[in-house]
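Exam prep: given the inputs below (a chain plus zinc ion), describe the expected output before reading on.
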Amino acid sequence: MPELPEVEVVRAGLAPAMTGARIVAVDVHDERALTRHAAGAADFVARLEGSAVTTVARRGKFLWMPIAAAGGDARTAVVGHLGMSGQLLLRRPDAEAERHERIRIFIEHPDHGELAVVFADQRTFGSLAVDELVPTADGRAAGWGSTEPFLPSQVAHIARDPMDDAFQSRVFRDALRTRSSAIKRVLLDQTLISGVGNIYADESLWAARIHPETPASALSTVAVNRLLAEVRAVLAKALAEGGTSFDAQYVNVNGEAGYFAHSLNAYGRTGLPCPRCGGPIVRVSFMNRSSHYCPRCQRRR
Ligand SMILES: [Zn+2]
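Solution:
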């Protein structure tokens, strides 16, 4: 599943082309890509056509584009859920259909002219939807790319991500004190801290030398601060390298894969030497998935 860096790469790619653009037409090729838009394809198309995109915003792994009628304020947004394999690609309006293309949105931008935003999805767990905007709980701008304190209702339960200026480390530390579950499980809990999935949880815990199954409440303030610093450092480095892409599945709006996979220290490196101590990285099953860690550097207490 794409995590914060992979989704941010998409957001940053879409923003210049979509901010200020007008949606001219929408082709829905496959209604399975609208599973989160209960009113169906005709309603989806009617809500989009003729509206203007005010910005492209992201919180954690969620992406949205507020849309407004000409001259009006945005009260709704197009929310993009990339699911396991969803892609948002920028193409010429007359470009050939992508493999697994589900939806094509034709836009007109005052500087960039006519473009198409293609939603392609091999496994159809992703979807687009039009959703109402609701106020943020703390009254601050909703996330990266957003200057307004509004976010889609489908994203309202998602915590701010650690790259967000309005993320409150103290609230996160306080939440950890009351949780006896494994720190890795807490890192994956999108209602406490968003944007981190299996890859970046393993990488951050490795960098902070914390065993993934350490009870969250057992971590000292110093350890939690170190972990948060490593989460931010790992996400920032992955973002700078275009994200992690296995089998070129997660790509930017031009279809290009990032190369952070070459910078992984623990994730997916079962049996390979730990870059810090040389001992073998081990893999254990965890929440129907896997944890990768170094048993020497990340001692269980
Ligand atoms: Zn090690």
